[in-house]
Amino acid sequence: MEFSPGNSIVKLCLQGMDLEEQGKSGEASKLFLQAWNEAANDLEKFIAAHYVSRHQKNVPGKLSWLETALKLALQINNDTVNSALPSLYLNIARCCEDLGDPVKAKQNYELAASHQDKPSDKGPFYHGTKADLQPGDLLTAGGSSNYKDELKMNHIYFTGLVNGAGLAAALAKGDGRERVYIIEPTGSFENDPNVTDKKFPGNPTRSYRSLSPLKIVGEVTDWVRLPPEELQKFREKLANNTGEIIN
Questions:
Q1: What is the pLDDT along the chain (247 residues), one digit of tens a residue?
Q2: Residue 136 gets which letter from DSSP?
Q3: Residue 241 CB: number of other CB atoms within 10 A?
Q4: Do 141 and 154 touch, CB atoms closer than 8 A?
Q5: Are strands 179-185 and 125-129 parallel, antiparallel or unpaired?
Q6: Sheet of 125-129: strands edge to edge?
């Protein structure tokens, strides 16, 4: 199971999020329920359950869907979903408080705190770019953002998904060919706060950042490329994005 923007369930959730932004909560809720009903594996069900929980009319309903999402996350038990555990436990704790169950609330607050650790992802890791690099070269922080020209990045970013790195390469600035390099972090790293628990629960894109350089150890030439029309949609979203980048 690997998160992909081309996945049909992910697409339904993205459409639902667009409707939410337009204030069309009822229509968004229907799409999220459709995503749940059409989900074919635990990861898809986990993502859909997260969004269905947000549209419940009462606290017991929200709690039930959050617990469903938690059960699925614990069954999956990998770096794709484990980063969502603190948020899941925290939201469950708040529901328990609202329902007058302080004991269960305290248990879940403690579980939320216990899962606030650094990523356990062991890789392999990838970086997408249009730069022509060689094994042994170092990628360092301080480059210009692909999303805001005037912003110098304090971290260097990478991912555990080769297709995610391929998308980053396609969106990267420059005229060179798209390249996906296998990299090794030379220091500690953290979940990318720009994506973790933002649009999707946790860090399903396995996106990370580091203050330390990334060492190029190889190159990948085969990954799933999005159709031109899908890629254009991503470019348009980036061009219209007015959100702040956590740097």
A1: 678 878 899 999 999 999 998 999 999 999 999 999 999 999 999 999 999 999 999 999 999 999 999 999 999 988 878 889 999 999 999 999 999 999 999 999 999 999 877 788 888 999 999 999 999 999 998 776 666 666 677 899 999 999 999 988 988 887 889 999 999 999 999 999 988 888 889 898 899 999 999 999 999 999 988 788 877 877 777 666 655 667 6
A2: T
A3: 11
A4: yes
A5: antiparallel
A6: 138-139, 214-220, 179-185, 125-129, 156-159, 207-210, 190-191
CATH architecture assignment, domain 125-240: Alpha-Beta Barrel (3.20)
Nearest CA to 178 out of 134, 218, 207, 221 is that of 221
Where exactly does CATH 1.25.40.10 map onto the chain?
A: 8-114
Would you say the C-alpha torsion 172, 149, 159, 88 has a positive or negative sign? negative
Amino acid identity, position 129: T
Element of type H or E holding 216: strand 214-220
Q: What is the pTM of this model?
A: 0.79
Measured N-to-C along each axis, helices 162-171 and 228-240 cross at an angle, to the nearest 10 degrees, of 70
The CATH number of 8-114, from 2.40.50.140, 3.30.930.10, 1.10.443.10, 1.25.40.10, is: 1.25.40.10
Q: Mapping DSSP to helix (H, G, I), strand (E, B) and coil, where does residue 85 land?
A: helix
From-to residues of CATH 3.20.170.40 in the chain: 125-240
Q: Return the bridge partners of 216, or none.
A: 183
